[in-house]
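Cont'd.
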Amino acid sequence: MSEHTSSDDRLDELTAGLPREVAPLPDLWPAIRAELAPRSARAAQWSPRWRLVAAGLLVAASSSILTLFATRMRDGVGGAAAVATADRAPAPPRPRAPARLPAHLVVAERGYARSIDALWRTLDERRDSLAPSTVATVERSLRIADSAIAEARSALEQDPANRVLADLLVSNYERKIDLLRRATELAPRT
Amino acid sequence: MARAVAVAATVTALAAPLHAQRKVHAAHATTSDVSVRLFASVGTVQVIGWDKDSVVISGAVPKGSQVALGNPGLGATRGLKLFVESPTEEAGRAGTLTMRVPRGARVWLKTGSADVAVSEVTGGVDVNIVGGSIVVRGSPRELRAESMDGAVTVDGTPSWMRLKTATGDITLRGGEDVGAATISGTIEARGGQAERVKLESTTGDIRFALGLARGAAVEMETHSGAIDVQLSRKTPMDIDAATVTGAIENAWSKARPTVGSEGRGMTFTSQTGGIGGRVVLRSFKGKITLRGT
Amino acid sequence: MARVLSLVRQQESVEAPRLAVGDEALVDRARKGDVDAFERVYRLYAGRVYALCLRLVADPVEARELTQDTFVRAWEALPRFRADASITTWLHRIAVNAMLERRRGDRRRSARVSLVDDDEDGEAQIAGVVTAPDVATAIDLERAIGALPPGVRRAFVLHDVEGYTHEEIATMTGLAAGTLRAQLHRARQLLKRALSL
């Protein structure tokens, strides 16, 4: 082993100065909350298989919430309701059967679905405090993001080994989540 | 260092000299690195860095606004929270605020649809708006600017910056560590130099013409926007460009991009040892164009 | 992409804190099924758990998933938590286990992920990512840690950053003492080189 040098001291000093906490963004609690089994249930019942089923239900719920939110927002705008059918935000590209996507992306998508679901719920709670023009901007951008995700995902199913595609899909999800996060931050807590 | 003299804070509501507006004014003695948080639903906000250890905020806000511009303290304060909320979004558009802060201050500003201009602040700046525009002049050490549909323009070279919009355009001049992301706005980076850059869009175009520091790392990524990159031919650089279905045009060197294995998409790589830096370009279907200077 | 993170410097010592008097009651309530109490536990410790996960995996997306997994598992395991134990260490152990399980799964699926023999890759990565700054800052160190090979990074984060002893790390990870020492030595070498120390 080498002796302790001044460069080691400097490294120790820098290491000791690292922050002990890093706030996770977005807030993970809503997604965690959705996964908690009732304490009365035996832990063994909450097996990985059940969690997968729950994740699937969450994704489905996410889709419903998105549609619900889009509808509610549009109802609130007034006048725009007439074009709701043609103008409705497409359902998010939900993770489908994982057979044709690389395994790590299936896992990642599950995480994204949870984050998106949690953010939608937060946004839904605070929607009344957002200006109609902001709602329109967010919706328009989400449609673009969802369309890009769907396109990249579909291409990746055809070419699952394509790393460029995998990276692009992940980035599209990240941008969508970031957009949702920012929208929730614009809407003050009530 | 904080000034010994405490500047009394006053909030003045004068008789309405403007149409349905009232003037506001407050002043606080602060430290030179004071942290200022301002929430203001007004139409225009100007933040100016100055060589005084004090924060002075003044302007005109709609009548009926809720105003909280801090209470006078005995000594120099390290943190201030200031708040102006107009009765309606419409009324707020006519409101204007000018805030002078010590240059080294950290400024956090959140508004609705406002035009925000920040100048001469060298500390930290964090601006979050929905509409309007953000213009930052000068080079704060750290800059974060987020807007939904407003444009973001940075006329300076902050050491660290992160710029984000949904539909607004982004214009920047470089910096040490630069990140910009948009859904459908354009990103334009030109006029300066950069070390670490990450630019990304979903459908917006990205135009890049910054000089690169030695060993620079640059990444650009889009789903369907065009990526137009201008690089010096004199600096050896590793370039790795790939699209899924889009075209790549190389006018930076004589090498030709190659068509993807299944006849879709293109790739272009140039390996020079990376002394000058590394540029990674990714696009799903947007065209990538490489130009030389 | 390098995600922007809000860093909160914690004033407490590196020593993992034991439960404060109020926190004991909190955990007890959570153990009995009080979700609000568990949310409070999450609020108190999420920053530390996420910091560990982020440094272990050097990927914000995966770190978020791991943090989420950690608290879901913690909820399930709370009835078995001993009140005299350190909650931070307990949560960290869950996080490390979750990370290792995930890595084992990845390894089964793909030969690309290597937990131990990854030094060569790491050296190439670190040379490319960190560009010998004149002044080594905490941000540079974070980047350099992120560029370490996974196994080496894990050893450094648990030992040097989180302050766990060799024995504790061996218990958490199953690593042999010799391997751990070698990884720590390698980590410090790479970091000093990356930071020009």
